[in-house]
Amino acid sequence: MKKEQVVHCQFSVWYPIFKKLTIKSLILPLPQNVIDYLLDDGTLVVSGSDHNTQRTQTNSSDSDGEEDIQWSDDETTTTVTAPEFPEFTCKVLEAINALGGRVFPKLNWSAPRDANWIALNSSLQCQSLSDIFLLFKSSDFITHDLTQPFVQCSDLDSPDPVINYELVLRKWSELIPGGEFRCFVKENKLIGISQRDYTQYYQHVCVQEQQICQAIQDFFSQHIQYNFLDEDFVLDVYRDSRGKVWLIDLNPFGEVTDSLLFTWDELTSGNSLSANQDEGETAQQQEGPAFRYTTSEVTVQPSPCLSYRIPRDFVDLSTGEDAYKLIDFLKLKRSQQEDGEEEEEEEEEEEEARQ
Ligand SMILES: Nc1ncnc2c1ncn2[C@@H]1O[C@H](COP(=O)(O)OP(=O)(O)OP(=O)(O)O)[C@@H](O)[C@H]1O
Ligand SMILES: [Mg+2]
User: Fold this and answer.
1) Is 110's C-beta closer than 6 angstroms to any atom of ligand 1?
2) Residue 136: pLDDT band with limits 50, 70, 90
3) CB of 60 shorter than 6 A to ligand 1
4) Exposed end of the chain (fewer CB within 10 Å): N or C?
5) Is the CB of 107 under 6 A from ligand 1?
6) 236 CB under 6 A from ligand 1?
7) 130, exposed or middle or buried, with CB in 10 Å at 0-12, 13-18, 19+?
8) Smallest Cα–Cα separation from 152: which of 5, 308, 305?
9) Which residues of 222-236 are buried (b: 16+ CB within 10 A; e: fewer)?
10) Quick one: average pLDDT of 130-146?
11) How far is the CA of 41 from the centre of ligand 2 (A)?
12) Ligand 1 nearest-atom number relative to CA 234
């Protein structure tokens, strides 16, 4: 995978080409001060200047309980106030309204899929910039886009292309996970299709295997093949309840993209791919792409994003990566201990009084 391929898979590059085939979206350039704010590790306070929400999220040192904690040796503790971006906030709200009031947010490549657990609605559905910031600031996938978009490229020695960061707002659409498929395209040929949510068994996929595979192949050959800037890429599609296929996303053909029920070794080896192994099919028996899906309840697996659900603070503490967090944590522990000791003393006094 070359850096150029990653550049081509940015939303603002592929969207104009395939606009009619996908969900309506708007792209806003991300101002540098917003990028800085998103990358600022110390601030998990979410700017709340837009009127759609009053919520704020704070890290341990600035939590609501701050007044209860006696900072005995640090009188200079300051409350972190969230920076505000009035002009950008206005543009974002305008765009959200133009898209029907509820949006799915992304950066140039990624959505904050690893952070949905932190949102109050446990979803990526956003109605305000505060909702978006909360997800973005909690997401490793977003940080990856901002800090190392070319990390797995083979031409690492060549200079990094300039990236203009963008906030992508997509009209919120209730997509049923069983209708989502990832398609692997090599040399402009559709070689493999994988159920996207491979953690679940969907009976309808099993029953309609042929129709699904055919619908995706038709969609690919009619609308996508030879129309993209590269000949190797990964295409995410959605087949709705009426059988119509939609484009959801385009991704680089390489390890940064999850190969789901295939492996990258298989996909790049040049050998024909087989469909679901447990059906005993061989590569020779099939024509067209290999179609893989979860074939029974037995093979159901845990959701891959579950591992992201540890609060960042715990990770930082356990690896000792953020010294300030460690200091905050120790202060908190000490004040808890002192509270505990005070309580014990009170209990002893009460006990004595009772005797
Ligand atoms: N407009 C939308 N409304 C609601 N949900 C959406 C929307 N677009 C995408 N989704 C859901 O979010 C999931 C992730 O979206 P998308 O593929 O754009 O993110 P991504 O970060 O590019 O993911 P990946 O890293 O796997 O390529 C999709 O599989 C789909 O279930
Ligand atoms: Mg993607």
Assistant:
1) yes
2) very high
3) no
4) C
5) no
6) yes
7) buried
8) 5
9) eebeeebebebbbbb
10) 94
11) 25
12) 27
Q: Is the pLDDT of residue 58 over 80?
A: no
Please write the tens of the pLDDT for every residue from 264-319: 999 999 788 888 755 544 444 567 899 999 988 666 666 666 666 555 566 566 55
Which atom of ligand 1 is least distant from the CA of 180?
A: 29
Report the alpha-carbon distance of residue 246 to residue 65 in Å, rounded.
48
Amino acid at 192: G
CA 22/CA 170 separation, integer angstroms: 10
pLDDT at 52 over 60: no
Cα(38)–Cα(145) distance, integer angstroms = 11
pLDDT at 311: 59
pLDDT value of position 349 = 75
CA atoms within 13 A on the CB side of 136: 32
Q: Whose CA is nearest to atom 13 of ligand 1?
A: 113
Ligand 1, atom 5, residue with closest C-alpha: 173
Q: Which two tokens stand for residue 23?
A: 């969900």
pLDDT digit string, tens, across residues 217-269: 999 999 999 999 999 999 999 999 999 999 999 999 999 999 999 999 999 99
170 CB less than 6 Å from ligand 1?
yes
Q: Which single residue is written with the structure tokens 């837009």?
A: 50
Q: What is the CA radius of gyration of the chain?
A: 25
pLDDT of the residue at 61: 42
Q: Which two tokens stand for residue 230?
A: 């590269």
CA–CA separation, 153 vs 250, rounded Å?
17
Q: Which of 268, 270, 247 is nearest to 259 (CA)?
A: 268
Distance 282 CA to ligand 2 centre (A): 30
Helices (H) and strands (E) in the chain, counts: 11, 8
